Amino acid sequence: MTIEDIVKKDLEITKAFYMKESSSFLPTSFDANVGTKGNRGFTAYLEVGEKRVKQYLYMDTGSSLLWINCDPNSYNAPYPIYDPKKSSSYKIQRCINSPFCAGLGAVKTWCGEKYMCNYEQRFIDGNKNSGHLAAETFFFNISQSSAENIVFGCTARTTLFVNGILGLGPNKVSIVSQLDSTMFAYCIGNISDVGSSLNTLSIGSLVLHYPTIPLIIDDKFYVNVFSIEFGYSRSPPTTLAIDPKIFKRNSENHTGGMVIDSASTLSFLPRLALDKVVESMRHLLDPVLQRSASVEWKGNIYTYHRLCYHGNLNYNLNVSPYMKLNFEDGGYMYLEVDNMFQQVGLNTFCLAFLPSDALGVQFSIMGALMQQHFRLIFDLSNKMISISSTDDCSVDDY
Asked: Domain Peptidase A1 spans what residues (predicted)?
């Protein structure tokens, strides 16, 4: 078969797919179980291709591309690895006729051999993956729904030892966009509880809960923090002296705001704000706990010494600190101990906030630890989000 024949055949397949009536592709119940792996983040369980290869993909609201490891993979990737040669529903994306081979933001694409659409993706933390774009059928385990012709990254090289990443970001290649949905939601319980029944992901028609917070849709999803309050036990909170301007998103110069990033374990704050949080924590905890030798975190710009203490989060914090993040238009989050601290050793725990500038960015990041015990519902058409604490995060509760 010549190159011209290949392109002609792919064009026919592409036209047939994109001329489908949208009503046949509306997401009514695309729901997946979510679990945890290695205390790093939350993974959604999906199955891929004709052989329904099981994949645990890290949920990532901070990126848009869905990618999985494909055989052959030149790195030591976790099994099972999807083999495109064993799936009749696998379709290569070619740059001459695919709408996904350009305009993918941070994902670099280029035309390779036989017009194959190649890509490379780099993450803020320095990790990367590369391969080619293809389309495949994905199965969602809770609802037993399937979605055909979902474009994904068929990865040949990656520095991340994961099955892959489920990109939920705002770009057109996001699975949310490809499912023609304007809403998605997830509930996540405790990051250390592998089998928590609270962990669920749902893409489709949902009911937005109140209070709602303005959602800024840029290259990622942002919210504006108005103020941070700090308190302990039953004491009234104190508002930290932080200029709210450092939290406000400026889309023109791409600074400010707080990214909602479910794939980042830790959270990041501007240094001026982090210093106030550290000062408050030290004032409260230094008299009752023994400080641990600072644990170093190596950022992209400089190494940061984390605030750490000897002990166990579940047993040694007799004085329970809490923080309240106040967002624009009245929304808020109450952060408990396991939202703010991370157990890094048998007898050491550290503050789970790091400075944004050490990472080389000028915005805040709401990581997975901060999102524990919350339900987040994204309404993309109205640019709103609801963040609420819940004891019941079943899919039916949406």
From this structure: 42-388
* Residue showing tokens 């791409």: 254
The pair of structure tokens assigned to 204 is 């489709």
pLDDT at 10: 35
pTM reported for the whole predicted model:
0.88
Q: How far apart are CA 59 and CA 34, in angstroms?
A: 9
Q: What length is written for the chain?
A: 398
- Sequence-distant (6+) residues with CB within 8 A of 8 are none
Q: How far apart are CA 270 and CA 242, in angstroms?
A: 10
| Inter-CA distances, 256 with 240, 246, 390, Å | 18, 6, 29
Specify whether the CB–CB gap between 247 and 268 falls below 8 A.
Answer: no
Residues of the chain with pLDDT under 50: 1-28, 392, 395-398
Mention every residue, 6+ apart, whose C-beta is less than 8 A from residue 5: none
Q: Counting Cβ atoms within 10 Å, is residue 146 exposed (0-12), middle (13-18) or buried (19+)?
A: middle
Distances (CA, A) of 87 to 95, 106, 264, 344: 22, 29, 32, 42
* Cβ atoms of 137 and 49 closer than 8 Å: yes
**What pLDDT is stored for residue 11 in this prediction?**
32
Closest CA to 112 of 137, 98, 132, 90: 132
The domains of the chain, with CATH numbers, are: 3-203 (2.40.70.10), 212-388 (2.40.70.10)
Phi (first) and psi of residue 57, to 5 degrees: -105, 130
Question: Could you give the residue ranges of the DSSP H alpha helices within the chain?
Answer: 3-18, 175-178, 271-285, 313-316, 337-340, 356-359, 368-371
Structural contact between residues 249 and 217, judged by C-beta atoms closer than 8 angstroms: no
